[in-house]
Write the structure tokens for this entry.
Amino acid sequence: MALAEPPASEAVVDETPMNSRLELIHPVGPLPLGYVREAPAIWLVARERSARWPTEVLRSGTVTLHIEGQTFSGRAELITDPLEKERVLDLFRCKYGERQFARWYAHPARILRVRPPAEEDADGPSGRYRRWLAAEFDNVAEDYDRHITGNRVNRLLRDRSLAELRRSFASAHHLLEIGCGSGMETVPLLGDGHEVLCVDISERMLGVVREKARAAGLSEALRTVRLPAGRLAQLSEVVGDRPFDGAYSTYGAMNCEEEIGSVPSALFRLLAPGGRFVAGVYNRWCLFELVGYGLTGRWRRAFGRARSPIPVGSSRFCVDVFAYSVGEFRAYFDPWFRQERLEAVPVLLPPSDLVGYADRFSGRWDALSTLDRSLARRWPLRSLGDHFLLTFSRRPNVPPGAA
């Protein structure tokens, strides 16, 4: 889930000729943007991942534009289909010319389509949020691995979680992965001989995992289902009565889900008695940020994860996220599961968006990561990591009073 952190404030600079731009109506003032109009749609390009306006527009689902002397309100959508993106970029190239296109739009972070408003979604804001979430991860699916492998802290997170998964599932065979992303843990576990059913909100992420499994000759052990974590109860209609031996969800799906309260009971019914669930969760209280930002008097950043959700611009992710303390997350699962292990990931080393601090000590990285690991399971540090890994085991019986 890790992407570059947006800056604390955004200065919008657009050198597009005045007669070739529109104004996006925004609380901080009109934002001038280049555009292409292809009735009934208007196309916008966000050149930087750190730009906040696309996220704010996509979160709400609507946008108001001032264009050609008129005010236009419409529904905003993120375009993720590669062929459609290329077609739209060709429209920008034709409008602005090769030189200006190369300078402004050749490597866009997002392409948005604004269309006339449609009827309200039957599933309301929750449905809009899920469509936005799916579109954002569809948009980065092909490039997602680079964000992990290109950052030493992100690699450390995956190394730690994979080690815990291999320990927890040494005698398990049939596994459920909730929010598989690009399969950073899926493929190694398939290679270890496990069967894995992956669910993810993004069909493009699932496609990446299927292709990796095919290339490794492991496709027969993989199944995929497009499903958000909050609708995990629907999975029983797909998998039937065969229980899973274990389940896991690391560094993504649990923090992106608005309705996490429905997950524990659904997971209880999908797992065999005693089956383990390993969760990698974005922590509400991060020691490195509390101390680092606190010492410099940046208290808003030090306690920035206390907000719920943490909006884009205050977190380092491409979507709004919900952070949990260890106690908060454990309380959701306690009636159905009991805690076995807890580990901070990492606790002394910086979060992935501050990897520059870690890079300064690259020559001592192995020693520092070993020290971090040795302290990551000790109280109280185990509750103060950038993320935490919490391993549960399923209780044998349905909790009293549970449906």
About this structure: The chain is about 35% helix and 20% strand. The CA atoms of residues 95 and 309 lie 39 Å apart. Residues 2-18 have pLDDT under 50 and may be disordered. The chain has two domains: 18-119, 144-394.
